[in-house]
Amino acid sequence: MDVSERDFASTVVERSRTVPVVVDFWADWCAPCRQLGPLLERAVAARAGKVELAKVDVDANQGLAQAFGIQGIPAVKAFRDGEVVAEFVGAQGPAAVERFLDSLLPSEADRLVELGDEASLRSALELEPGRAGAALPLARLLHERGQDDEALEILRSVPGSFAAQGLAARIELEREIASSDQRAPLREAFAALDSGERERAIELLMQALAADGAANGSREQLRRIVVGVLDELGVEHPLARTTRRQLASLLY
Q1: Helix, strand and coil percent figures for the chain, each rounded to 5
Q2: Separation of CA 168 from chain center
């Protein structure tokens, strides 16, 4: 489909939040463009709606060409979730076009994570060991059933995930406070987390961190739990920004 400056935002950017959209920046006078265009059209059509193709005539839409830094054509940019995720410049052969499009489609592990049931999550981890998007929800399911040893084993196999480290710290700390009436606020914090009350949970966890007499090991576990919650909120979340400043002030 032909796209212009008028409808680019809706047809490409917003649409890419549902399905990958490949944009072919071309011009009628460009011979390599005329070679690449039909290849893209056939390859996209073969994927039966799993990816869409938009064509932008750079002569008629110079603002778009400038906005996306088009210096040579054909130029192909793939959008997913509103952003450019892959691109190439110049005519490509059929095999290269096929590989490019395939790289935009969800993998089998992606599909299994999307399903979200226990069997699918386990299968996703078999395909991609250490994948946080599968390990975290699976560990939560196991934790809810009281299978904490297996949950910890899975979480410890996830490299570089603050969320995984935070959940592991929570499980470890829950074991330590199981028989202590003095850590009731932490139980309340964990209950708030489970019910989605993240602001209340963070408030209680930060209070626990600030409390006098907290053991070093306990403070480190609490820090990891808070950082894990903030990681899941995302860098730009207002609560995450505020809490990071408070956490830095409290610890350092």
Answers
A1: 60, 10, 30
A2: 20
Query: In Å, what is the CA distance from 129 to each residue of 26, 45, 47, 169, 195?
Result: 41, 33, 28, 21, 29
Active-site residue list: 30, 33
Tell me the pLDDT band of 186, cut-offs 50, 70 and 90. confident
Please give the domain boundaries of the chain with CATH numbers for all domains. 8-102 (3.40.30.10), 108-251 (no CATH)
Contact in structure between 183 and 191 (CB atoms under 8 Å) = no
pTM score, whole prediction: 0.65
Residue at 106: amino acid letter: P
Is residue 53 classed as helix, strand or coil in its secondary structure? Answer: strand
Categorise residue 213: left if φ over 0, alpha if ψ from -120 to 50, beta otherwise: left
Structure tokens at 141: 């399911």
